[in-house]
Amino acid sequence: MKLTHEQQAMLDSKQGLATHKAMQILATLGRIYGAAEMLPVSSVQISGVSYDNLGEAGLAWLAEMAAGGGRVKVLTTLNPAGMDIENWQALGISAEFAEAQLRVIAAFEQMGVVTTCSCTPYLFGNLPEFGQHIAWAESSAVCYANSVLGARTNREGGPSALAAALTGFTPAYGYHLDKQRKPTLTVEVTAKVCGTHYFGALGKAIGDRLQGKGQVAYVRGVTSANLEELKSFCASLATYGGAALFHMQGVTPESTLFEAPEETIRIDGNHLALAEQQLNTARPEEVDFVSLGCPHLSLREVARIAQLLNGRQVKKEFWITTSRPVKKLADQAGYSQVIEAAGAKFAVDTCCVVAPIKGRFHAMLSDSAKACYYAQAKNQFKVRMLPFDEVVQEACQ
Ligand code: F3S
After folding, report:
1. Which pTM does this prediction carry?
2. Are residues 143 and 234 in contact, defined by beta-carbon separation less than 8 angstroms?
C-alpha cells in the first residue's frame, strides 16, 4: 500500500508511540484487504466502550494509547458505556463496575474523544456529509451513515476506529469504494410498514434472508420512512443480516444512482408476522423490564413518551435510553420531569444491551428488534416486542 510522507512518519514512530501503533493497525488492515492507499477521514465513532465488553485487557490497551501520547485528529464520539455516567447508582450498577467504567471514559477523554456515549451521534453534531469518508464502529450507526446519510465507512472494530481517530486516516477498501456500494439484491416489500417496531421487524425479515453474506440490498416498495423508523431499520438489518449498507428507492440518497439488481426476494406481510412472532417469546405477565431507546432515542421519541406517561405510573422497571445532549433538551422542555414522575428511569450514556444486567431480569419488553436479539443472546432474557406506544401502555399495566 502506498503511504504518504506523513503516514510513513507515523508508522516510523516520528509522532509518538500511540500514533505508531495506530498506523500499524491501519497498515495491517490495508494489506489484508488489498487497499491501494489511505483516505483522510472527517469523523470517527468508537464502539466497545462498556467495561462489560472491554474488561481489564481492553482498559489496559486504552490506557497505554493515552499514555503513549495518543490524541484524536478528527471529531470523535463514543458508543454507549456500561452505565449512566452521572446517575449509575439509580440503575443498580455496582461501585466496582462504575470505578472501572470511569477509568475507561477518562482514557478516552485524555485522548481528546468527545465522551457523549451514544449510538446516535448523528443526532447531536457528529453528522457526516454525503460522500465523506469516515470510520465508524457501531453497527447500527454504520448502516445509518452509509445508507441514509451517504457517507462512507466500513464496519470498524473499536481498535481500528480509535486508530483512524489518532491518525486521521483509514485504508481505502470496502464501502469507501464506488464498486462496493452497488446493490447486489433487490428486496421487493409488499407489506405496509409503519413505526419503529415494524421497521425493526422488516430489518429482521430481510436480514435473515441476507445471512451476513455482505450483500447490499436495494429495497423497493417502502414509500416513506422517518428518521426514527430508519434508525430502527438500520439497527435491525445490521444485527440480523450483518449489513452495513442498503439502498431504499425514494428514501436514501444513493438509490437514484443504481438500477435494481435482477436477483430479487420478496417480503410480504407473512414474513413480517413471522419476524414479530419470533421476537415475542414472553407472555405479558412475565415482563419485569421495559426498555425504549435502541438505538438511542431522538428528542421526538422522548417527547412522545412524556405525552403518553403524563399523569400515569409505570408498574415495572422502565429504562429510557438516550444520549446526554437529548436528555438535556428533554430537561429543558420539561419532558424528563413528567417521565420521572411516572416512575420511569433515564439510563443516559448506556443501553439495555451494554449495561451489566444479566441475571437481574427475566423478560424484557421493547419496540426494538435489535434490543430483543441481544436480550436473548447476551442476557438470556425472554422478550416481547410491541409498537412504541403500546410498550408505554403496557409498562403502566
Ligand atoms: Fe445502541 Fe445499545 Fe441498541 S448501542 S443500537 S442502544 S444495543
Report:
1. 0.97
2. yes
Site residues for ligand 1, CB cut-off 6 Å: 79-80, 119, 138, 140, 235, 294-296, 321, 351, 353-354, 370-371, 374
Distance from C-alpha of 120 to C-alpha of 143, rounded to nearest angstrom: 11
Residue ID of nearest Cα to ligand 1 atom 2? 351
What are the two backbone dihedrals, phi and then psi, of residue 4, each rounded to the nearest 5 degrees? Answer: -75, 170
* Structural contact between residues 341 and 320, judged by C-beta atoms closer than 8 angstroms: no
pLDDT tens per residue across span 63-120: 999 999 999 999 999 999 999 999 999 888 999 999 999 999 999 999 999 999 999 9
Whether pLDDT at 47 is above 90: yes
CB contact burial 65-102 (16+ within 10 A = b; e otherwise): bbebebbbbbbbbbbbbbbbbebbeebebeeebbebbb
Digit-coded pLDDT (tens) for 272-313: 999 999 999 999 999 999 999 999 999 999 999 999 999 999
Tell me the chain's radius of gyration from C-alpha atoms: 21
Residues paired with 383 in a beta bridge: 364
- For residues 35 and 27, what is the distance between their CA atoms, to the nearest angstrom? 9
Please, what's the largest Cα pairwise distance for the chain? Answer: 64
Residue 118 in grid coordinates? 451514544
Reading the block at residue 149, the C-alpha cell is: 446519510
Atom of ligand 1 nearest to the CA of 350: 2
Q: Where are the alpha helices (DSSP H) in 211-253?
A: 227-241
Spatial neighbors of 59 by CB under 8 A, at least 6 apart, are 51, 100, 103, 104, 107
Whether the Cβ atoms of residue 144 and residue 122 lie closer than 8 Å to each other: yes
* Dihedral, CA of residue 10, residue 11, residue 17 and residue 23, to nearest 10: 90
Residue to substitute in 237, 294, 352, 381 for testing ligand 1 pocket (most ligand atoms within 8 angstroms of CB): 294
Nearest 5°: the CA angle 391, 393, 396 is 110
**What's the chain's average pLDDT?**
97
- 3-class DSSP assignment, residue 246: strand
> How do residues 372-395 score in pLDDT, each as one tens digit?
999 999 999 999 999 999 999 999
Q: CA-based angle 233:328:384, to the nearest 5?
A: 35
Mutate to test the pocket of ligand 1, among 79, 116, 119 (most ligand atoms within 8 A of CB): 119
